[in-house]
Design brief:
alpha/beta; Dihydrodipicolinate Reductase, domain 2; 2 domains; elongated; binds nicotinamide-adenine-dinucleotide
Length: 347
């Protein structure tokens, strides 16, 4: 059955979905509902049905799937109303503002036997897919540390994202993407979370945060997002017991350095370096180093819609599952708590 998509919230991301969803066979955007009349008019000018009333929109029988792209504070009420109207529901990230809201959304989707998923599109980012494959294929041995970061320099957070009541701040905005990426790569249990949030130049919400997750297999994963970083560190740093991986950017540039023989110990003499005399921090000789390329990956964000289409047709399993969305949100809740208490939160 083709997806006949109705979009709630025709702003930046609603417009993005309008442009990209129809690139997938069997996915059409047919209607828009927005509380801003000018956005409804814009939709009509583009040949879509435009609604100023939620009830009228939800009564449109042509719409079988609703995509919610509003500010975060109204995701829950709109998702529950859509599920109760018998529509499949796709919600933008972050799914909601509390675990209780997520539970209500999942309950409504189960009660009405509709599909419920969240647009965690960064599972299809090129840089991420390369890192995930390298880790899963054991290219750097046993991983002990992962750093997943985004440093931007724009600084000022615009519009509703700058207000707490709308679900603003970077932990909810970008944090949920980067946490989801880590959890989708490491299936083990997270045993503790420690986080520090800062309002560097945006007084009401966090515009810089650093979060540490410890997994029961010993892996330590750091997620860091900063909006006012005028110089930046690489997008990914991953350490394993047989190599080091760095990805510089969203394009996935970077590489892996290994040594060709772990047992090949180089001399125990102290070496004079720019850091002074040292053995441990002396550079490895080039002949023992092996540079290997990152795995190839060419994911497409539009694969998200194709998966939802196939799930609705009963041909596939959902890629972004409600229980995974809850798992990511439990880390966000723990991070807010850790920041408040100044302590690590055991899970
Ligand atoms: N997945 C991603 O990569 C990604 C990227 C950007 C934004 N988002 C998410 O998309 C959502 C929307 O963000 P945006 O940047 O498009 O915001 P936006 O401000 O550009 O657009 C929001 C739209 O929702 C409308 N709206 C507000 N309240 C409404 C309500 N109660 N009912 C109907 N319409 C309402 C507004 O009038 C506006 O047109 C957020 O949840 C955000 O986190 C996701």
């Amino acid at each position: 059955m083709p997806i006949k998509l109705g979009i709630i919230g025709y702003g930046g991301m609603g417009g993005w979905h309008r442009k990209n969803a129809p690139k997938v066979d069997g996915v059409d955007v047919v209607a828009v509902y927005d509380i801003d009349h000018s956005r409804v008019e814009a939709a009509k000018e583009e040949g879509l049905k435009g609604y100023d009333s939620l009830d009228d929109f939800l009564n449109d029988k042509e719409i079988n799937t609703v995509l919610i792209a509003t500010p975060n504070h109204v995701h829950k009420e709109l998702a529950v109303a859509s599920a109760n109207a018998g529509k499949n529901v796709i919600v933008e990230k972050p799914v909601a503002m509390s675990m209780q809201e997520i539970d209500e959304m999942i309950d409504a989707s189960k009660k009405n036997n509709v599909v419920f998923t969240v647009h965690q599109n960064r599972r299809w980012d090129k840089d991420y897919c390369k890192v995930k494959k390298a880790v899963e294929d054991g290219l750097i041995g046993k991983v002990y540390t992962i750093e997943n970061r985004v440093h931007g320099s724009g600084g000022i957070i615009h519009g509703w994202r700058n207000k707490k009541e709308y679900g603003g701040g970077m932990l909810l905005d970008w944090g949920v993407h980067l946490i989801d990426q880590i959890l989708y790569m490491i299936p083990n249990k997270v045993v503790s979370v420690y986080a520090e949030l800062f309002s560097v130049i945006n007084p009401e919400v966090d515009d810089y945060f650093k979060l540490l997750m410890k997994f029961d297999n010993g892996i330590s994963a750091q997620v860091e997002v900063g909006t006012f970083c005028l110089r930046s560190l690489p997008r990914w740093f991953v350490g394993g017991n047989n190599g080091t991986l760095v990805v510089d950017d969203f394009e996935g540039h970077g590489g892996i350095t290994k040594i060709n023989n772990l047992a090949d110990e180089f001399g125990s003499e102290i070496v004079e370096t720019s850091a002074g005399p040292t053995r441990t921090f002396a550079p490895r000789p080039d002949e023992v180093k092996e540079e290997i390329e990152l795995p190839d990956a060419n994911p497409q964000w539009t694969d998200f819609y194709a998966n939802v289409r196939d799930v609705i047709d009963g041909k596939a399993e959902l890629i972004v599952k409600p229980e995974e969305v809850k798992r990511a949100y439990s880390i966000i809740e723990a991070a807010f708590k850790s920041n408040e208490t100044g302590k690590s939160v055991e899970l």
